[in-house]
Structures are given as structure tokens and as C-alpha cells.
Amino acid sequence: MLDSLISPRIMEPVKLLGVALLYALLDKFTLTYLAGNGAISMISFPSGLALAAVLIGGQRYAASVFLGALALHATTSGSTVLMSTGLAAGSALEALLGARLLTHGVKFNPDFKRLKDFLLLILLAGFMGAAIGALIGTTTLLTAGFITSADYFSSLLHWWMGHVLGIILLTPFILVWRRPPTGWLEPRRLVEVALLFGIAFLVGQVVFRGWFNDIAGPYAYGFFMFMFVALAAVRLDIHGTLCLLIMVALQAISGAIHGTGYFAADIASTHLVNYWLYMVTLSLVGVMLATYIAAESQDKELLREQEEFFRMIAENIDDLIAVLDLKGRRLYNSPSYAKLFGDLKAFQHTDSFAELHPDDRERVKQVFRETVRTGVGQRIEFRFLLADGSTRDMESRGGLIRNSKGQPRLVVVVSRDITERKKIEEKIRSLAFYDTLTQLPNRRMLDDRLGQAMAASKRNGKYAALLFLDLDNFKPLNDRYGHNVGDLLLIEVAHRITACVREADTVARFGGDEFVVMLGALTVDKAESMQQAETVAEKIRISLAEPYRLTIEPDGIVIEHHCTSSIGVVLFLDHDASKEEIIRWADMAMYQAKDDGRNLIRFYPRD
């Protein structure tokens, strides 16, 4: 809010001075209330503030730390300019080094979504970063005569431990609380927060400050606080956990300083080392549990979102999605399956191959087994056999899902109905290779079939024959009755020719009233092959010469028409003739039949 009202040129210096003032006040509070009778506290909250300020605002906030520390120490009794400057420099360098270690070379998230982030804070900024501040600070005190050389190493250790604990407690608190927790202000939630902190505070006072000592003294053990920290982690996430840790840290060190409660004798016996170990352990346990629960909650929410995302996709696309076990049994079918198979309840745990066309079943099973074995999905086309006996053409691709150990777990199959696409493809193919009027192969298909016949003849040594037919009395019918009636005749001619040849032979419409018949795999003997070709040609000639009764729609008028054909025949074997030459020779033989009087059969060459 203030950032939007005040110019950035003014706001930035205000922030820098504000951090310096806050650092000085926090340092004063620490030395006054948390350091006991010495100059070194076992918990240095200013160190946590300094690191958080540099992490959030950048390196320029190290100047705020320096100014705050300098102002405090300069006003402390017995402090010299050199000592104040050295202590302030040590605090600033500690914050700079800690921030540098956390932001360069490691993936540190200041929101502490993972335990790894907290451990990085402890190891890099705490153990390593605090070492430079402890070294400079203790050396400065030694130089200024505040400590003796005999106390140097113990003071160095205590300084380091205090700064580590301050970083562990306050830095995460500041970083996390930049984003307030959600829902804490709701009435029921607010009551829960108040009760948890209220009871935890009361128990903390009993344990660390000796409240109700006559009654609860024998039972006031430090491990009670682990229960409240765990409860805060479960119910109040990391925000509540960090708040509770700071509260416990203050209660415990207050009891130690005043000689009450659980750590009453800790200053004399261990110089608060037990206190330090207790708080580090409590912090680790609390943050570990809070981050774990947060990660679990996030994973569950992510899983729920993914499930909802998957459900929305499955329910709103026409593709069919199936989840199968490794034996092909159905575990899930998307609602789109109901369009083909009706009620899906009967589908659960059934064999997914049962609905496949019998001719496709084994091939699909083989692809399924390969997907499970290799983990690589393959695209495959097959047919579903529906309850009414009809089929639907499908295109599918499967994918293997593995468990956390990398073992095959499930197969997800996405199928698409391509029936209409197949029909369109067949129609396009028909237009490309078949005559639209007679449904016979066209010249393009004939060219392909002739090439196959020539290759087969070369391979097996058997003759093949090409028959070229032209209708003798077609034009007068067209001229008198029009092309519609002429088309009826051409369709009937196609039927009659097809009825005269083997299924393996090819009948093609060459164009207009011209047709081509290709007879493959006759015999190895030329004379016998010629006889076979002539027999078929004669059969066709006789069939085409029979009268045609053509019905004109919609009037129902029946026209009787007589039409003969002239047929040219050429045999070919393993020779160097091209497809064009073979067709040309058959065409020449056909024209010879016309020249000789029509309704005849002629071979090329004539002899």
C-alpha cells in the first residue's frame, strides 16, 4: 500500500533505514534479555533478521545491517569505534555470505516447500555463513579486551551457535510470513489457533519457567513441546510451526537465564549447549514434519487436479480412453465407450479383446504384448465388433505406465473411430482407381495390374493375354436416346464382361465404349494359351451380342437394343515389350476386327 503512495526514490531509503532500526532494536533486546550476564547470546535473532533482509531485498540491505549494528555497539558502554566497526562488519559479511551461498549454485526456495530448503539454510547460511560472523566478532572482542585468549575458542563456539540458532528460527519465519496463512481468520480456525498456542504457552511455562512446580514439577519434561510442535505442523502448517518454535525458544532461554524449569542448571553445567541442541532438534523435527505434510497435501491436491483434468478430458472428447491391466482387462473406460457399447458397468474387469473383430484379435494382442514388454506404444488399426453385428474401424495407440520402481503397471489406450475416414479414403481410392459409372478399374488401375501381370509372366514363364473391346453399335443409341441410356448400356456391358472371366482376371473400362480384359497366368504353351484367350474372348463376344433391355426412369419405358463388340487380343510373355506397346497391339488387333466386318475376334500379330 505504502509503495503505491510514496515515490520509490523515497521509499527505498525508508526501507533501508527501517531495517537498520529494526536490527538495532532486536540486537538490543537480545543483549538485554537473552544474553544472561555475558556479551554473547545463545540465540541471536538479529542474525536471522539480517539474512532474511538480504535474501528479500538484495545485497544493499547489508548496509542496513552494518548501520544497525554500528549504531547499537557505538552506544554501548565501553565500546570503541574500532570494535563497533568490526562487530558491524562481521554482522554484514555474515548476512552477505549466507545469502550468497543460498542463491548461487543451489536450488533454494525461500517459501520452504521442502525439507531440503531448511537443511540448505542450516548448512550453508547457518553452519558456514555464521562462521564468518563468529570469527570476526570474537576476534574483535578479543582485540578490544572484552574476552581473554583463554576464553576465545569457547566464545567463538557460543557466538557461532547463537547465530546459527537465530538463523534457524527467525529467517524462515520472516520469509514464510511474507505470505500470510490462509483461513486463520475464520472463526473456527481462529479458535483452534488460539487454543493450540494458549495451551502450548501454558505447558511451556510449566516446563521452562516452573509454573505450578509443586504439582507439575516432577512431570515437566522438555519432550512435551515436541507434541505441540507436531500438532502445529499438522494443523497450522509451517506458519504455525515457526511461530511456536520461536515461542518455545524464548520460554526455554528465559527459564535458563532465570534458573527455572527444565534448563534451570544448563548455563552452569553445559553453558546452554543442551538448550541449543534441544532447539535445533525441535526445529528440525517441526519443520521436517510441516514440510512433509505440506508436500503430501500439495501432492494430493495435484493428484486431485490431475484426476479432475483427466475426467474432464475423458468426458468431453469423442476419443475412447481405456485403462487396462497387464493382461488386457478393463479397469476404466471413458464415457465415450457408451456410444458404441451402451452400459459401461458390464465392462469393468472384462477382457478388452473380446469386442475386437476375430480377424484382428490376435494381431492386436501381439501389439499389446509388445507394448508391455518394450514400453513403446504402437499405432494400430482394427475393428470393433458391435452387438448388432456391425463393425467400426478404430485407430489406437497404447502407452505403458510404470510404478515408482520402474515396473510395468498399467496400459492406457486411446482409440479413435475412423469409420467415416475409412469410407472417405475408400471413396477417394475408388475415384482414383475405379470408373465411377461401371465401378470397374480405370486406366490407372489397369496400368498397375498390367505391370503385375508382366512381372508374374516373367517369373513363372506363363503367357498372359490382353483383350481390347470396342462396342460396335453404341453411338446410335447415344444419339437417339441420350447419354443416360448409353450409360445404362455401358453398366450392363460391364456386368456381362465380368461374368465371363475368372475372379483373378481384370476387367477395366478404358474410356468411352472401350473395355480391356487382362487374363493372367494362362499356360507355358503359346498355342494352348491362345486357345484359352480365344475361348474367353468368344464367350464375351457372344454375351455382348445378346439383346439389351434398358429401362428408362422415371417413365419405365423399356428399350431393346442390339449391340455387338470387336475384340483385339495380344499374348505376352517374358519379353521386352512395354505396357504401352501391349495395349497398342491389342488396340490394333481390335481395329482389324472392325475392318474385317465387326463382331469379330482378331489376334496380334495376325498370324
From TrEMBL:
<dbReference type="Pfam" id="PF00990">
    <property type="entry name" value="GGDEF"/>
</dbReference>
<feature type="transmembrane region" description="Helical">
    <location>
        <begin position="275"/>
        <end position="295"/>
    </location>
</feature>
<dbReference type="InterPro" id="IPR043128">
    <property type="entry name" value="Rev_trsase/Diguanyl_cyclase"/>
</dbReference>
<dbReference type="InterPro" id="IPR007895">
    <property type="entry name" value="MASE1"/>
</dbReference>
<dbReference type="GO" id="GO:0071111">
    <property type="term" value="F:cyclic-guanylate-specific phosphodiesterase activity"/>
</dbReference>
<feature type="transmembrane region" description="Helical">
    <location>
        <begin position="243"/>
        <end position="263"/>
    </location>
</feature>
<feature type="transmembrane region" description="Helical">
    <location>
        <begin position="159"/>
        <end position="178"/>
    </location>
</feature>
<feature type="transmembrane region" description="Helical">
    <location>
        <begin position="218"/>
        <end position="236"/>
    </location>
</feature>
<keyword id="KW-0812">Transmembrane</keyword>
<keyword id="KW-1003">Cell membrane</keyword>
<dbReference type="InterPro" id="IPR000700">
    <property type="entry name" value="PAS-assoc_C"/>
</dbReference>
<feature type="domain" description="PAC">
    <location>
        <begin position="378"/>
        <end position="430"/>
    </location>
</feature>
<keyword id="KW-0472">Membrane</keyword>
<dbReference type="InterPro" id="IPR000014">
    <property type="entry name" value="PAS"/>
</dbReference>
<dbReference type="InterPro" id="IPR001610">
    <property type="entry name" value="PAC"/>
</dbReference>
<dbReference type="InterPro" id="IPR000160">
    <property type="entry name" value="GGDEF_dom"/>
</dbReference>
<dbReference type="GO" id="GO:0005886">
    <property type="term" value="C:plasma membrane"/>
</dbReference>
<dbReference type="InterPro" id="IPR035965">
    <property type="entry name" value="PAS-like_dom_sf"/>
</dbReference>
<feature type="domain" description="GGDEF">
    <location>
        <begin position="462"/>
        <end position="606"/>
    </location>
</feature>
<keyword id="KW-0378">Hydrolase</keyword>
<dbReference type="Pfam" id="PF05231">
    <property type="entry name" value="MASE1"/>
</dbReference>
<dbReference type="InterPro" id="IPR013656">
    <property type="entry name" value="PAS_4"/>
</dbReference>
<feature type="transmembrane region" description="Helical">
    <location>
        <begin position="118"/>
        <end position="147"/>
    </location>
</feature>
<dbReference type="InterPro" id="IPR029787">
    <property type="entry name" value="Nucleotide_cyclase"/>
</dbReference>
<feature type="domain" description="PAS">
    <location>
        <begin position="306"/>
        <end position="375"/>
    </location>
</feature>
<feature type="transmembrane region" description="Helical">
    <location>
        <begin position="190"/>
        <end position="212"/>
    </location>
</feature>
<dbReference type="Pfam" id="PF08448">
    <property type="entry name" value="PAS_4"/>
</dbReference>
<protein>
    <submittedName>
        <fullName>Cyclic di-GMP phosphodiesterase Gmr</fullName>
        <ecNumber>3.1.4.52</ecNumber>
    </submittedName>
</protein>
<dbReference type="InterPro" id="IPR052155">
    <property type="entry name" value="Biofilm_reg_signaling"/>
</dbReference>
<keyword id="KW-1133">Transmembrane helix</keyword>
<feature type="transmembrane region" description="Helical">
    <location>
        <begin position="78"/>
        <end position="97"/>
    </location>
</feature>
